[in-house]
Design goal:
Its EC number is 1.17.7.3. By secondary structure, the chain is α/β, with parallel strands linked by helices. The chain has 13 helices and 17 strands.
Length: 423
């Protein structure tokens, strides 16, 4: 199976529900929706006008596995930089679609910089701040007309933090007339949903085909996000972009995003995802890409890189060696994956186990394609290695780590390379 395949449910009642069928939207060379695998995307945090730093970060995100990358386009300088960034990436052999993120002045920037309008693969429009008062409709129409002119799709992305206040006021007024008024939270969720759906309907009315529209409606609360996207999915067949906005830093952001998106993905909702993490000081921006990939892979929706099963450690595993080996193995296969993706397709489905003692070690190692059971406290200083359920060798001495990594490489070569066995 390749990364372009969706892992199906093994049987009813087990695994994710069937994917919700949405319209297929082509963004650069990437398909979103229409039954395509869930796409991973990310966003830069550089000043887009700084061509060198933005190009470098886009390249880093792409190498980590981001299949689309969004950049802020907020000034004339940023808009002018976009074609140069795209050209530099192309010279590096990187064809990742670049998405322009617009707020307030997108209609002006894209009109003034037609090269940017053409270079971008998609425009992200926020209906809550595309314009205000009488200018809103005209400025939204200008953006949609530019998308039509340049043959580009758009993401209409409503956001809890920049909700269309006129729409919210209208719904609050309507709510007062209900025999049983909704609570304020439900009214605001409805406003967010309608902001996306009504804007999409307006775009179609202007002339943008529905298969060039992706919708999102982001909030920062897990339960609110689940409720909003269930309604969006129920009311239409637009492709949906999932993401918990302002998720937070570190484990909080990872847990909150995984909880919300995991529920929706399990229900077959979502065509592309972004994990919006606040980077910890010194942390690479690409961490959000890794988290998104691991979420999809852990749920059985896609495969990106071999995953390592490792025990948490206990009083039986006083040595830190198994922890260091698990880390070394994970880093090794992730570093090798860009090469293996080309030369050894299918290696992303490899399962690995690094276990720390005799209790669960041999059993977990047998379940993996290749696993090692290290000696725990008081155990004989020997580490049996299992391949596809069979014990193949016992490692001893000071070079266990390097020898096990070497066995992994040999397994990949044997099973996924040019000499791979034919089933």
């Amino acid at each position: 199976m390749t990364t372009d395949q969706i892992l199906p449910c093994a049987n009813p009642g087990f695994g994710p529900l069937p994917r919700r069928l949405t319209r297929a939207v082509t963004i650069g060379g990437v398909q979103v929706g229409g039954g395509a695998p869930v796409v991973v995307q990310s966003m830069t945090n550089t000043d887009t006008a700084d061509v060198a730093s933005t190009t470098k970060q886009v390249a880093e995100l792409w190498r980590a596995g981001s299949e689309m990358v969004r950049v802020t386009v907020n000034t004339a300088e940023a808009a002018a930089a976009v074609p140069r960034i795209v050209d530099k990436l192309a010279m590096m052999g990187i064809e990742v679609p670049i998405i322009g993120d617009f707020h307030y002045n997108g209609h002006q920037l894209l009109t003034a910089e037609p090269a940017a309008a053409q270079a971008l693969a998609k425009y992200r429009i926020n209906p809550g701040n595309v314009g205000f008062g009488k200018k809103k409709d005209a400025q939204f129409a200008t953006l949609i007309e530019l998308a039509i002119k340049h043959d580009k799709p758009v993401r209409i992305g409503a956001n809890w933090g920049s909700l269309d206040q006129s729409l919210a006021t209208r719904l609050m007024d309507e709510n007062h007339l209900r025999a049983e008024p909704w609570d304020a939270g439900r009214v605001l969720r409805e406003a967010l949903i309608l902001s996306a759906l009504e804007s999409a309907a307006r775009a179609v009315e202007i002339g943008l085909p529905a298969d060039r529209i992706v919708l999102s409606a982001k909030v920062s609360g897990v339960q609110e996000l689940v409720a909003v996207y269930r309604e969006l999915a129920r009311r239409g067949d637009y492709a949906l972009h999932l993401g918990l906005t302002e998720a937070g830093i570190g484990s909080k952001g990872i847990v909150a995003s995984s909880a919300a998106l995991g529920v929706l993905l399990q229900e077959g909702i979502g065509d592309t995802i972004r994990i919006s993490l606040t980077p910890e000081p010194g942390q690479a921006r690409s961490n959000e890409v890794i988290v998104a990939q691991e979420l999809l892979q852990t749920m059985g929706l896609r495969a990106f890189t071999p995953m390592v099963t490792a025990c948490p450690g206990c009083g039986r595993t006083t040595s830190t060696f198994f922890q260091e080996l698990a880390q070394k193995v994970q880093e090794h296969v992730r570093a090798k994956m860009p090469e293996w993706k080309v030369t050894h397709p299918g290696a992303e489905n490899l399962t690995l186990a690094v276990m720390g003692c005799i209790v669960n070690g041999p059993g977990e190692s047998r379940h993996a394609n290749i696993g090692i059971s290290l000696p725990g406290t008081g155990e004989a200083p020997a580490a049996p290695v299992f391949e596809d359920g069979e014990k193949t060798v016992t490692l001893r001495g000071e070079n266990i780590a390097d020898e096990f990594v070497g066995l992994i490489d040999l397994y990949v070569e044997r099973n996924y390379g040019g000499n791979a066995r034919v089933a």
